[in-house]
Amino acid sequence: MKLRISAICYAADENELKVSIRNILKDDESIGFLKINPLIGDKKLTSKLNIGGTKFDCRWYNYIIESFGVEASEIQLAFSNHISSLFQPCSDIELKLSPAILASKRFPNIENVTDTSISAKRHVVEASTIKEVIERYPNQKGIAIMGDVNGLLEESSSIFHTENIYFHGALDNGPMLVEKFTGRVAIMNKVFVDGLLAIPNILEAWISGEKYQNLEVLLVYASDICFIYDRIQEDFLNRGIAKHWSPSERPKIFPLFPRIIGYDKKRVRPEDCSAYLDIQRKTDGKRASFAADLFAFHFLVWN
After folding, report:
1. Rounded CA gap, 213 and 186, in Å?
2. Nearest CA to 277 among 212, 233, 216, 226?
3. Given CB 3.0 to 4.6 Å as the disulfide criterion, which of 36, 144, 185, 211 pairs with 164?
4. How far apart are CA 41 and CA 44, in angstroms?
5. Is 100 helix (H, G, I), strand (E, B) or coil?
6. Which residue in 160, 127, 163 sits closest to 145, CA to CA?
């Protein structure tokens, strides 16, 4: 009987592809490492290996397959399909792309990728690179940008409709990400202050049911001090739109466990929302809580 797993996780570097699996209740566990030599190289001590009908010369020891003289895209696809065949079908196939991969634009030939993590040299990711990755791996449900974004995303980008997004440095893209996001979970760091000025509009649109119908978690961290929270809090309380927490209406603790590729697991924790203000959506009565300080805005929707 094939093992049930929650995710297959690939990490791609130049001529290398590491694979691990994530069991339902355990951390990632490495199960294979593919090293592709683009040259014929020294074929001593090699043997023939057949994976999914693809035959190639290789050395195979421990968890490492070192192949010779085979097109990288061909063996990558055969390798990933073979790994998938070993387990019960799983909904998550994650892919972490190294700076070397992004620089060469030789993206791994892996099918049905659901989540990608994009890193780059000097922690700067070009907006054009994000576009290329999205086009290469369409229909993703999670994207993590592990660096500061240089340039503006296209307004028609499908990233705004991705289920879960994490930006290490959204910078100028913060306002557009907040405005256009239609997914479930968005976490954005280093957002220029303009990205926080839209907070009242976000709250109003959610309350009316006009936008953000799928939103569950929105965490926005500013790149500089933003003096707006007291004004928003006072305004929403005076208008009767928001109110202080009542133990009879919702729990004190929000189960904040966003499973986003690339997001630091140490920051995944239950959130004490006793000091948050509460609002309610007019269309279905659903409740949400929000809070902000000089650098951050948190918006959490209760099930």
Report:
1. 14
2. 233
3. 185
4. 9
5. helix
6. 127
